[in-house]
């Protein structure tokens, strides 16, 4: 899926236990030991590389990861006082493209069930920052977050390096009317919590657009959302409309859906409504318009574009 120029204007992996939940907000530069992290073997802190300081976490220190592994680095966090929490981390990775994957999963039942909210495959030699919206888990006393490596039975690669993890409030301030042509670099990135979406070239106008899986395929059983980093205040709006351009290609329309969703309360659990869904293929760019009139008078509106695979 690719998205360009969004505007709002008037016209089961088995669970495993973690240590006690850390307080919110949370930040860890990996320079003070393992702390409250619970690491499956062979996950460990390493000085082989880092984004800052001397240490980071990696799934296979000193070597490549093994075939057919499914190992995790897990943290519990108390989001009971959070409103719009966002998970931010820096990473670099070396996976077999479309064969081995790095995932970020969330659990709200002490690790018995997990939802995948981020996925990555392929290679990135440079350190990259990711932002994943956690607002659906706000007000929850013990959310579990894990970084998980899953490999297949073929080629082995260097793996995943993770540093400078934080879970804190989103500080983005968005105004109404809102417009983003996806060409503003850091400003565009700051407008969104992008999860697995990445900026790529080939937009409908200008240069850039958001793409949910630029390295190749989308794995099964995943949710990935491109979410506005802040709320939109529609308290003075008259006839607000969400317009955007998109095109997409899906291998199996029964197992891959695209949703446009709107929340009337910060993006909290149970507050998102699906206003449009798409499946199948749309080879050329097409403009969409979604009516937001039902949200007139509300001040804490969030919008997201979500891919879901089964």
Can you put this structure into words, describing what you see?
This protein has 310 residues and is an all-beta fold. The protein folds into 2 domains: 2-11 and 171-309, Jelly Rolls; 26-169, Jelly Rolls. The chain is 2% helix and 46% strand. The strands form 4 sheets. Strands 1, 13, 15, 16, 18 and 21 form a 6-stranded antiparallel sheet that branches. Strands 2, 4, 5, 7, 10 and 12 form a 6-stranded antiparallel sheet that branches. The two termini are 16 Å apart. The model is unreliable at 9-16 (pLDDT under 50).
How do the strands and helices of this protein lay out in sequence?
Layout: E1 2-10, E2 26-28, E3 38-39, E4 44-46, E5 56-58, E6 70-77, E7 85-94, E8 101-107, E9 115-120, E10 123-133, E11 143-150, E12 159-169, E13 178-180, H1 186-191, E14 192-193, E15 198-201, E16 208-211, E17 223-228, E18 240-249, E19 256-263, E20 272-278, E21 281-291, E22 302-309
Antiparallel strand pairs: 1-13, 1-16, 1-18, 2-12, 3-6, 4-5, 5-12, 6-11, 7-10, 7-12, 8-9, 8-11, 14-17, 15-16, 17-22, 18-21, 19-20, 19-22
User: How many domains?
Assistant: 2
Taking the sheet with the most strands, its summary is:
6 strands, antiparallel
Distance between the termini: 16 Å
The unreliable regions are 9-16
Order of helices and strands: EEEEEEEEEEEEEHEEEEEEEEE
How is the quaternary structure best described? single chain
Top CATH class of the largest domain:
Mainly Beta
CATH topology of the largest domain, which one? Jelly Rolls
Broad shape: globular
Total number of helical segments? Answer: 1
**Roughly what fraction of the amino acids lie in strands?**
over 45%
Mean pLDDT, as a whole number?
92
What helical percentage do the residues reach?
under 10%
Estimated radius of gyration = 19 Å
- Secondary-structure content class: mainly beta
> What's the number of extended β-strand segments?
22
Reported CATH architecture of the largest domain: Sandwich
